[in-house]
Design brief:
Blueprint: E1 4-14, E2 19-29, E3 33-37, H1 44-52, E4 59-64, E5 70-73, H2 85-90, H3 99-108, H4 122-134, E6 140-144, H5 152-163, E7 168-172, H6 176-182, E8 185-190, E9 193-197, H7 204-233, H8 245-260, E10 281-292, E11 295-306, E12 310-314, H9 321-328, E13 336-341, E14 347-350, H10 363-368, E15 374-377, E16 380-383, H11 384-390, H12 407-420, E17 425-429, H13 437-449, E18 453-457, H14 461-467, E19 470-473, E20 482-484, H15 487-494, H16 497-503, H17 532-559, H18 564-567, H19 569-605
Helix pairs in contact: 7-8, 17-19
Length: about 600
């Protein structure tokens, strides 16, 4: 392994109360791909700031190999003091850096460079900050939530851009797919210390669970030993005899060990208050259209949502996902068409930007509505502090103004408020923003068990794959075709993954042109059927799969001929290459057939 170019050793830091970091360590070698994981508030961002040299430790060592360049992307970039976006990005360049790369990145990120930084949206500010840290191509890139406020095309472009860099990466992100794609090493921050796994994030969660289970076993053994020694101590005067003082001191040592142990942070206890049983039909939309000026946001859209379905909406920023959500829930009037809502609907919405939280309101008042100190949950009255604990808030935070909460804490507070009210329809606009991975896990489990219906907008591909039963995707000219399954299922059903990847190399190509699926055949009651193209592919693919299997078998037999490699190296290499191509085409054909077969079965079951 290459020698480290950045070292943090025995780092200690506290902010006036309990220690945040107690002996944390970090080493980064050239070209390393490392992700920092841990609960909200565990110190991930602080450790990254220490690595960037922006926060001083109370104790510990920071070493940077001389000549090493480091660039740091904060969660909330500050663009103040710059006349244009290009000025802001160029200020991150060092002498000798290529200034043309800054312009190139801005173009790829769909920014002209002439915009006023003060007028940028959250997504535009994030893209400008990414251009600033990527332009110098530093030795180490420290990235704190780089996918925040980015849409799916921008996230996929960023993954490809980072994968092609020679820079070492240290990343914090709640996006599982992003971490699985890029990380090769995982550093877990837990109870002030760090533990290193020399594998990517895909292997982290099972390793973490095994570690915590082993800790619980050791703690149980320690508790049993303390109980046995305490029983001996209470038996009488023998404990005070001189020859037993060593045993007494050993007991005090055991108790000290138990006090010193910082147990794992509690889990969020997500539960939802069920409302009345809604009718079978939740939403029926026919011929919906909505335009702003000359731009069609939604055009001739049909949808039928039944009880228990979980519908995901995806698309680039500005495509109109929130507009379509408001049309479907009746909070926005369409230009044409109609929406019929089912009977007995009790709808709860979680807005995207936490705008409905007044910064001056206390956490307790948000949950109680400012009336008393109890909150009604599932028809029962609970003390607000008890309910707060379910969402990992401390009792002393009850009178804390919302304005001082972190992004993750605000996200948990919005969930706590929404889930306390009875509902049978959840409308969630970017619910995963700022939530840690453990809370995301529990939110996914809760939605899986929720008996009602869910409408969900998200850029989190893994979350969509785990939660939704159908995906509505933005396309050109206000078209919103519906696909069975999650995000990965949508990509497979489109059948043009390679084209999708080439067209979304940058956020500019946010809405690639494709053949419309909006006009897919439907029955008289709006039920979708397989299109002619899908039917033809479903009938033709078994023959193609058989032909490819035969071709692959012949090539394997040819390669197995004794002496072929020595006799005719060219023929051997040609056969090996042809076998690789045949196997790739076979796998693609099998995946396409499986996706179409699943779609056919689902449509027939409706």
């Amino acid at each position: 392994m290459a020698p480290p170019i950045l070292i943090l050793r025995d780092v200690h830091l506290s902010f006036g109360g309990a220690a945040l970091l107690e002996g944390a360590e970090l080493t980064v070698s050239a070209g390393e791909r490392l992700c920092l994981v841990g609960r909200n508030g565990s110190g991930k961002s602080t450790l990254l700031k220490i690595a960037a040299g922006q926060v001083q430790t109370e104790w510990g060592e920071r070493f940077v190999q001389p000549g090493t360049t480091i660039r740091y992307l904060p969660q909330e970039p500050d663009l103040a003091g710059y006349g244009t976006v290009l000025d802001y990005v160029a200020a991150g360049l060092a002498p000798g850096d290529d200034p043309h790369r800054a312009n190139h990145l801005l173009e790829r990120l769909d920014l002209s460079g002439t915009q006023d930084p003060a007028r940028l949206s959250g997504g535009e500010a994030r893209r400008a900050a990414l251009a600033r840290v990527l332009a110098p191509e530093p030795d180490i890139l420290l990235l704190d939530e780089p996918t925040n406020h980015l849409d799916l095309p921008a996230i996929e472009w960023l993954e490809r851009e980072l994968a092609g860099l020679r820079s070492a990466l240290v990343m914090i992100s709640h996006d599982r797919r992003f971490l699985e794609t890029l990380s090769r090493t995982t550093l877990w921050i837990d109870r002030g210390t760090t533990r290193r796994l020399d594998k990517g994030f895909a292997a982290f969660e099972s390793w973490r669970d095994d570690t915590l289970e082993q800790e619980a076993t050791e703690r149980h053994k320690l508790n049993r030993k303390i109980a046995a020694e305490t029983e001996w101590l209470h038996k009488g005067v023998t404990a005070r005899r001189k020859r037993n003082q060593g045993r007494l001191r050993a007991l005090q040592t055991l108790r000290g060990e138990r006090r010193a142990q910082r147990q794992a942070t509690g889990k969020v206890a997500l539960s939802i208050t069920e409302g009345k049983l809604a009718g079978k039909l939740i939403i029926e939309a026919k011929g919906l259209s909505k335009s702003y000026g000359a731009r069609a946001i939604v055009k001739d859209f049909d949808l039928r949502v039944q009880r228990g379905e979980r519908i995901g909406l995806v698309g680039p920023n500005g495509a109109g996902k929130t507009t379509l959500l408001r049309l479907l829930t009746g909070t926005l009037a369409p230009d044409a068409g109609r929406v019929r809502l089912g009977a007995n609907l009790q709808m709860i919405s979680l807005d995207q930007g936490r705008e409905s939280l007044d910064p001056a309101t206390t956490l307790s008042d948000v949950l109680t509505g400012g009336h008393g100190d109890t909150v009604s949950v599932a028809g029962a009255s609970r003390h607000v502090v008890s309910y707060m604990k379910d969402f990992l808030f401390l009792p002393e935070q009850a009178r804390t103004p919302v304005g001082v909460l972190s992004g993750g804490e605000r996200g948990r507070l919005m969930l706590a408020r929404a889930l306390a009210r009875p509902s049978n329809l959840l409308v969630l606009d970017e619910p995963t923003n700022d939530l840690d991975l453990e809370t995301l896990d529990l939110l996914q489990e809760m939605l899986a068990d929720y008996p009602g219906t869910v409408l969900l907008v998200s850029h989190d591909r893994d979350f969509l794959d785990r939660v939704v039963t159908a995906t509505i995707a933005a396309e050109d000219d206000g078209r919103w075709p519906v696909y069975a399954g999650g995000y990965s299922d949508m990509v497979a059903q489109r059948g043009d993954l390679d084209a999708t990847q080439s067209e979304t190399r940058s956020p500019k190509a946010a809405a690639p042109k494709r053949e419309s699926r909006q006009s897919s055949p439907r029955t008289g009651n709006g039920k979708r059927k397989l299109s002619f193209k899908e039917k033809h592919a479903l009938e033709a693919l078994p023959q193609r799969i058989g032909d490819l299997e035969s071709e692959a078998a012949k090539l394997r037999a040819q390669l197995a001929e004794p002496g072929l490699y020595a006799r005719d190296r060219g023929a051997f290499d040609a056969a090996a290459a042809a076998l690789g191509t045949a196997e790739t085409q076979l796998a693609a054909a099998e995946e396409e057939w499986l996706a179409l077969e699943l779609l056919r079965e689902e449509l027939e079951d409706r």
